[in-house]
Every structure is written in structure tokens, then in C-alpha cells.
Amino acid sequence: MGRRLDILYFDTTYYPVAAFSCAFFLYLYRYVSPKLSSKYCPKYSLLSDQEQVDWNNRINSTVHSVVVSCMCAYTMLYDDEIAEDPIWWDSPLVRTSCAIVAGYMTSDVIIMAIHYKQIGEVFYVLHHGASIYAYYYVMTYGVLPYFANYRLVAEFSTPFVNQRWFLSQLGYDKTNFIFVSNGVAMAVTFFIVRIAVMPSYWHRVYSVYNTPAFNRLGYIQLCLIIPCIILDIINVYWFYKICVGAFRICCLFFEKEKLEGKSSTGSKLLNNTFNTLFTKNNHPVSHKHID
User: From CA 150, how far away is CA 45, in angstroms rounded?
Assistant: First the structure.
């Protein structure tokens, strides 16, 4: 599926993929998402301009995450060479994934710059900047495929994060079973693919650090460490916010279940009392007995 690199050389083979990715997601955001959303989801037309911007942007994010997650999973299952040579194995599939990510994030930065007041956030700018910086080198030089693909595992949690926002906009109550289930799935997957993988990732970085293969990278060594530190700090912060939100929603959900349980118990007690008063020897009592 690939080949072992001997030296670093500047390669623009995957630049058209990145350019197509950027153009595709801009087109999806500007034309496809608004048209299909208004056609198949009547509530979309009732959203404010700011909410529609966010909606279309999250459609982009979801499509991107599904595509990249599938490519990432396939690479992990079938491309054993990148695990054996995590620095210098040139994997076309990983480079294609990185090109798609770089193109998507470039389009997202453009959209955020245009609508910064509506959807702009400093953490997203830092996240995208660090990601583009790191994936640019993988896309261009073909090095560090294992580590790039390892970081792409994080995209598995994105659909659940976006789905929570969609459910909220569609009017789902926060104590609704679907809303709560998605929230739990979001928190669990976010933890597994963004937080729990950190020790394993940094252990692998440590295992190759200062080896001859690592030292041959020169200044590209930095994209293995600095962007990932930034991304991990941001992910920890986001996970903290997810946990706080999930805890509040679960409290509301169980409080609702508790209240409904009490209401159900009260109704049963009232029915039993009624039956006891108006029944004698398990037979209905006539009106004259009541008198």
C-alpha cells in the first residue's frame, strides 16, 4: 500500500486533493446543505440566520468526520506497515486523509472568518491551525503516517457532538431518552478517542524520540509534538465541558424519571383506594349501598 522513504522531498501530489476538499466543503456549506435541509427538515427554515450558519457548518463537520473516520479505520485494520515504520513509511491513504482534513479545515477557517460573530471561537481557530500545520507536513512529505492516522481517530466522536446540537435545535427536551442517549454516547466516545488514547500516543512518541529515524526529520520533528500538545490541551478542556453538561442532563433525566415514578405510584394508589371503597367481596357495590 506504500513504500519506505529514504529522504525528505517536497511533493505536491496531494495538493489537488486538499484543494478539491476545500472547494467541496465550501460548496456543501453554501449550496447543498441549505437546499437539502430546507427540503427535508421544515424546522430549518424557522431557524435564525446565525443558527442556519451553525447548522450548515455542522453538516460539513459531520460529513468530513464520517469520511475521514472510515479511512482512518481502514488504515488501522489493513495497513500494518505504518505501525512497523511509523516515521518513514509513505502511506498514500494516510496522505489522502490528511489532504482531505487540511482542505476541510481550511474551508472551515474561511467560513469562521466570514461569520466569526456567529460561530467563531478562539479554541476552534487554535485547533484548526495546529491541525493544518501538522497534516500539511504529512501530506507534503509523506512522513509520520502512523502518528497522523492515530490523531485522526479523534474524528469518531464528532458526529455525536454535532448530533447533540441538532437535537437541541429540533426541539428535543434535554431529558428526552434520545437526547440523553446521544449525550452519553458523545461523552464516552469523546473520552475513548480523544482522552484515553493520550498515554498510548505519547508513549509511542517517546519510543521513537531521539532515534536515528526521528533525528533525520529535522525541523519536522516539531509537528509531532507542539501541535499535539495544543490539541490535547483543547480536548481536555472540551471534555471537561462535556462532562459538566452530561452530568446536568443526567440529573434532569433521573429527576424526571423519579417524578414520573412518584406520579405513577400515586395514580395506582388512588385507583386501589377507589376500588376498595366501591367494591365489596370483589364485586361492584351498587348505588344504594353508597347511599
Answer: 39
Q: Cβ(250)–Cβ(188) under 8 Å?
A: no
pLDDT (tens digit per residue) in 181-211: 898 899 999 999 999 999 999 999 999 999 9
- Of the chain, the percentage scoring pLDDT greater than 70 comes to 88
Its pTM stands at 0.84
Residue carrying C-alpha cell 507534503: 140
State how far the Cα of 190 lies from the Cα of 243, in Å rounded to an integer: 10
What gap in Å lies between CA 282 and CA 30, rounded to an integer?
70
Burial pattern 6-21, b for ≥16 Cβ within 10 A else e, equals eebeeeeebeebbeeb
Report the C-alpha gap between 133 and 227 in whole angstroms.
Answer: 8
Q: Which amino acid is at 59?
A: I
Digit-coded pLDDT (tens) for 96-139: 999 999 999 999 999 999 998 888 888 888 889 999 999 999 99
d(CA 246, CA 174): 10
CB 83 within 8 A of CB 146: yes
Please name the amino acid found at residue 150: Y
Give 279's pLDDT tier (boundaries 50, 70, 90): very low
**Residues whose CB falls within 8 Å of the CB of residue 182, separated by 6 or more in sequence, listed in order:** 160, 163, 164, 167
Only one residue has cell 452530561, namely 246
Q: Which amino acid is at 158?
A: T
Q: DSSP character for 43?
A: G
Of residues 220, 228, 210, the one with CA closest to residue 141: 220
